[in-house]
Amino acid sequence: MLTGDKNEFGNFSRIKLDEMKARGGAGSIWTVSGQKNIVAKIYHKDVNIREYQPKIEAMISSRPDSLNKTSINTLFPPYTWPLSQLTQGGSFVGYLMPKIDFTVGVSLERFLNRKSRQVDKLSNFVSNRHLLAHNLAHSIKDIHDKGHLIVDLKPQNLVVHREKYLISVLDTDGFYIGLGKDKSHFAKQFTPEYIAPEFIKSLPSSVDIQQDYFALAVLIFRLFNNGIHPFQAGMKRSNKTINEMVYRKNYAYGLAGNRGLIPSRFSEHEAWPKDLREAFDQAFRSRNRPTCNDWTTLLSQFNPTVNERAQICPNDTDHVRLDKRCGTCELQEKLNRKSSLQNNQNTSTSTPKQKNISTKNTQTNIGKRKIFKSNLIKRSIYMSFVFYVIWSIVFNYLLEPDFDIIIWMIDRFGTNAIWTLSYVIGIAIFLYVYNRGNPRRDCPNCGAYAGALKFQESDQDFVCWHYQTKNGRPDKRYKYNPKLFKMTSYWHCTYCESVLRYDHELSAHPNEITTRVTSKFVI
User: How would you write the pLDDT of the chain (523 residues) with one tens digit per residue?
Assistant: First the structure.
């Protein structure tokens, strides 16, 4: 038997636990006998309970205004906020919090991607995701009004009502609880890809409100752009992780240009209203980011039922026009034009089936018959000879003040001709190997060597877990169980001017340079 408090939410002086429903890193969640709207979180015995007790006390005394008896009775409260401490034998063991009905709720992560919405049978109406963004900004504002911060703001900690699009925030005992100088309780973790650039090399305990503003902007961007992360972009030389892109502020979707980056070809950002793009620019390129109030004011204008700036698209009732432009339709038209160009090229040479076979045969033949590229060999020998002559003349001139070019030529190309030839061949081999590239990646259209291809952009799609159950869920028996992604990269051949599509093997961390190519096509 556990003991709680008697307060406006009920009399919790005698608490009996029924069934454990979930287990996390710090504690487990239990149903409570006689309470349909309340559950208990009991901390594990190996947890330092002294760190949590004063924080839970502080949270009970300073809960958000939107958390009241009415919101709890709906079974979809805005926060799983502590309502009462729980003690056993006079010792603190956990707390009571509102219960969430997960039968009508789903993780915000499932709303971001079109495929996951289809799998979970969620509405594909664009305006619903705009409403989610508005409600999320409003929920975070309630936290900030009390002087608290979420810090570890991410989709996995947000549950969305399937029909009403209300948001409930989980894991509130991990928040920063602000009670003034020397009385605050700090957060202990945050998540890569949602950390503001100025805090990437800092501890969670040292962040300020700009961390929440940054993470909020990332989530709003992803809701508007079908799950694309604002720092998910290609680079002309080599791709970096999203965390590295955030740290360098490599934001590819701004009004002022993409700074040499390659935006995702599935992004709708070019059709967004100017003030929305300006808000994202401010969020991702400065430290004076839009506040929750700024976002709610802006996003309230994108509701087609109350504002003329948003209108149902006549082409598809799931689409919404913002300032008379439908980003979904414009993206589809762009992709259709690209597909049409590919189909026209295929039909001009052969049937689509024959073109696919021909492409594969070309790849195989090039790999077997033209491993060594004659043009590249000639170029490497020429560059090697030029490099050797220049380097040798400069080196001898510096060592011998009375340097004579005629004597040098007789020595290098007469007396020591064998050594000269050895140097030139050695440098030529190095240049050839450096520029050759992997033969698997040679151009399937003209056979140009892989090093001549220029990277354009890449797309990554989640396929499965490395270890997973029959229903597609991660197998919890394995501690290391990464997500596996299928990557498609796009290249430009500098010889035949073709645009190429390479399909890569499944990988946890796909990269266009290291991941093996499984098939190649000419677009």
Answer: 899 988 888 889 899 999 999 888 889 999 999 888 999 999 998 888 888 999 999 999 999 988 888 888 877 899 999 999 999 988 999 999 999 988 899 999 999 988 899 999 999 999 999 999 999 999 999 999 999 999 999 999 999 999 999 999 999 999 999 887 677 899 988 898 999 999 999 999 899 999 999 999 999 999 999 999 999 988 766 678 898 999 989 999 998 876 678 889 899 999 999 999 999 999 999 999 999 999 999 999 999 988 889 999 999 999 999 999 999 999 998 888 777 766 665 554 443 333 332 333 333 333 334 677 778 888 889 999 999 889 888 888 888 777 888 888 888 888 888 888 998 999 999 988 888 888 878 888 777 888 888 888 888 888 888 888 877 788 888 888 888 888 888 888 887 777 888 888 888 888 887 888 888 888 7
Q: How far apart are CA 299 and CA 133, in angstroms?
A: 7
Longest dimension (CA), the chain: 105
**CA-CA-CA-CA dihedral for 225, 227, 231, 233, to nearest 10:** -80
CB contact at 8 A, 93 and 286? no
CA distance 99 to 306: 33
Residue 438 · residue 451 · CB < 8 Å: no
Do residues 417 and 423 touch, judged by C-beta distance below 8 A? no
Collapsing DSSP to helix, strand or coil, 512 comes out as: coil
Q: Which domains does the chain carry?
A: 1-101 (3.30.200), 104-346 (1.10.510.10), 374-440 (no CATH), 442-522 (no CATH)
CA-to-CA dists, residue 221 to 195, 208, 275, 277, 465, angstroms:
15, 21, 13, 10, 26
